[in-house]
């Protein structure tokens, strides 16, 4: 064997360096990739936040002239695209990466190089989507990009090209990640971890991954058709050529509604981990919470036209989609009740992670109820495309997704880095964010009901909207301050010694059974799983009064019988490092960018892509 | 009816909100960890409770769903009655055209209607991109889609501005679907005439042929209106010819961006009778009319007149202050 692989050219050899910047470039370790996802996504989160605050400053007073209308439409388009595709989705992916293999007792994901590819494609796709700020103009037709405003005569210039190509590239990353986590969760669980013993976060990741794999192709088709309309003059969506602009809306929302659940289900999974830990009680009604998540994943496909109640689809379609939409409130309600029941009778410790999880429930209830109110088409005829909807989506996506993700950051930060975030600063962060969020978004409910439409860059003072807009802007500044507190917390924490214990919160799942941060191979011995909350049951047994009793020292090993002798870390086989994920990702991004620049760039991109695939396929399994 | 339904939903949601948040806060406060507390009992679930809290919200949803469905079907078709006024609403980037096919009247940005019990049946058509027709205090929105005509009906009783806030416009309408640069400034005003007779009088006035300008200044203005190329897009002599606007639209779509082309523009035949200008964003005063003619892009950024009209793109056709005074006199004569 050595002779054969020794004959391979040097550029086909696996890299061997784990250290320095280069070690990060060639890494296939799920924990490192997770950290890269997290850092990159948070940087994009800050960009999206700056865009949001700029918009709020423009709207602080009537007839303000801070930005012109074209800049404003680029700001609201890029704010949504950035927060959805470049912040919330990849922050969720960061948790999938860091936590899922640890929770299921695996040493890595099923396809480590594909995992690295997902990250690099995400990074380049995100840069491509944002390149419009530097070169020409950014997409300015909203993240929903309704046809035919996106066609040549109405969106001249390169703005919408960045949208089409950037999202096509990003979709590749999402689909690859979705496949990877479906296979990982189904195939790589530790022995004994049946589906109904999986931690809730793993369950929600599984559902989200299926949604990614199924939803991304729909937007891909729509984007390719839009690309043809723009680059080749076809008529998929252009009415002047007989095309149908409403077709875009159907395709977009068939993707777009499952996408909403792609954004919220991971946060629901995080909250379902944090609440039991800090209440010292198991999740109430685990099977029902799991099935609710699965049901939401299914029903997410049957409600898309509720985004289109005002399009004029007719009473039958509106009635049907009103009913299916109201249906989705049921599993969501069941989850909320189960979370409250989890805390009921518990022993609640208010760590920052727990505060964010409780904040998630408080705010998600508000967002959920306003959601039900526009499930009714006649009421929605007033609410659609107004600030009422802006309020709703921010209660579920900021109060929901982002609060859930912050909860996860405080909860798993020690596991990922070995550092415990400062609790005092964390609580300051929470309260500023919670108060700021309500000051910003609650007034938008009344603004919307008072007739203020979305996506307007200015308003006259004779509309009576001045006061609440100013209040909302003040709130948004408070949110910005809260984010700075978080950054300061991370910055100061990372400069200290690594002092996080393996199990700082008295956790329930397997990731807390190994050191913080975990060794490269995660588990020296793959654990056997005998129950839900596997690690909790290694630490405690339930007494006859239903209260847990600590297992006597040494008792934990009672579960270990039948294990093979612990392996020496040097014998653990880990996937080899690789250059090719980043090369392949670069090729894909270059191909896409070339469509805007020059055919020669496309050719170069295709060549690099093929080189990446070739090298990927033929590189040896292990370094020499 | 929309309001009744909204109130049902609002109060249902309010009750659920208070109940659930109340239970949540009670739980969080009551079960906070106290020093020296022993481990809590490990409950895993309670089937009857779980069934109950699935059925209870389902019943609450029925309270919302039944009136929702009945309202959808009740409001779907125009009521079968004699007093129906047909209006064709054509949305353009970024202004509103209102046609009264029963009377041959065409106007822009101000929708005059007779009061309740007259029902207005609006046929919604778009010349370019998707817009959305909405009068917040009168009728919920419906999208205006190219190649796909929608119909909407409503009735209005006359309301006056609230004396406490006289500056608030009672029946303002606006575009609710993002439609490009000047979307925020695509508004209109609904004027409910006090009686049907008053509405008929307004129609008669709009149907009257344009009056020839009297003063010399206005006559100069009329000449400039032709010479400076305003007539490429604007008509000021009665309703537009059949098909003229769609011919203008076609030519716009075939034109390279940035090159001048005819484009559908507001009919100015009775311009002086309107209360607003620039898509109902300014009062129709001499001051605002001058500002509009001097630099339309400053008043309403992105608008097609600033981008396409010879008077603003061709140095040979540029308007001098005297030209503007003359044009204003002419426009003011269009009673």
Structural class designation of chain B? alpha+beta
Q: In CATH, what is the homologous superfamily of the largest domain in chain B?
A: Cupredoxins -  blue copper proteins
Distance between the termini of chain B: 39 Å
Q: How would you characterize the largest beta sheet of chain B?
A: 5 strands, mixed
Rg of chain B to the nearest angstrom? 27 Å
What's the total number of strands of chain B? 12
Q: Report the β-strand fraction of chain B as a percent range.
A: 15-25%
Overall pLDDT of chain B: 87
Give the H and E element order of chain A.
HHHHHHHHHHHHHHHHEEHH
Describe the structure.
The complex is a heterodimer of chains A (624) and B (335). Chain A is mostly helical and 624 residues long. Chain A has one domain: Cytochrome C Oxidase, Chain A (Up-down Bundle), CATH 1.20.210.10. Chain A has 18 helices and two strands. Chain A has helices at residues 2-6, 20-25, 30-59, 69-103, 112-130, 159-187, 200-232, 245-279, 286-299, 315-343, 352-373, 377-383, 387-417, 423-449, 466-494, 534-539, 580-597, 599-618, and strands spanning 540-542, 548-550. In chain A, helix 17 (580-597) runs antiparallel to helix 18. The longest helix of chain A is centred in the N-terminal third of the chain and has 35 residues, at 69-103. The N and C termini of chain A lie close together (10 Å). The model of chain A is unreliable at 1-6 and 554-565 (pLDDT under 50). In chain B, the strands form three sheets. Chain B has a five-stranded mixed β-sheet with strand order 3-2-1-5-8. A five-stranded mixed β-sheet of chain B has the order 4-10-9-6-7, covered by helices on one side. Chain B has a two-stranded antiparallel ribbon with strand order 11-12. Helix content of chain B is 38%, strand content 18%. In chain B, helix 1 (2-30) packs antiparallel against helix 2 (47-74), helix 4 crosses helix 10 and helix 6 (286-294) crosses helix 10. Chain B is of the alpha+beta class and 335 residues long. Chain B has helices at 2-30, 47-74, 196-207, 216-227, 244-254, 286-294, 296-299, 304-308, 310-313, 321-333; strands spanning 84-92, 95-100, 105-108, 110-113, 119-126, 131-135, 139-144, 150-154, 172-175, 187-192, 276-277, 282-283. The mean pLDDT of chain B is 87. Chain B contains ten helices and twelve strands. Chain B folds into three domains: 1-25 and 57-76, no CATH class; 84-206, Immunoglobulin-like (Sandwich), CATH 2.60.40; 216-333, Immunoglobulin-like (Sandwich). The longest helix of chain B is centred in the N-terminal third of the chain and has 29 residues, at 2-30. Chains A and B meet through helix 4, helix 8, helix 9, helix 10 and helix 11 of A and helix 1, helix 2, strand 7, strand 9 and helix 5 of B.
